[in-house]
Sequence to fold (97 residues):
Amino acid sequence: MDKLKNSSGIDPAFLEFCQALANKNRQRILFEIFAEKSEHKVGEIAEKSGLAISTVSEHLTQMKKAGILSSRRADNVVFYKVNKEGISQFLRHIETW
Fold:
């Protein structure tokens, strides 16, 4: 995790992680859809969440950037899964408080 801190003293990567989880749709995607199975395609997530594919894609991009999700590409299909190591890293950060 980046050890640089912003003017408030909060690690920017940790702040981005928290902001990614602050959205209700991203919470639903993480806690409801990824609880069912470990890996999903964008279309599956859109169907289960009732959100447009473009909206889901934007949420997944933010969650991946924040370290919550990871992805892999198979041909022209992108699969997303929970980034357990990324989440563990942020939990370890909280434990240092």
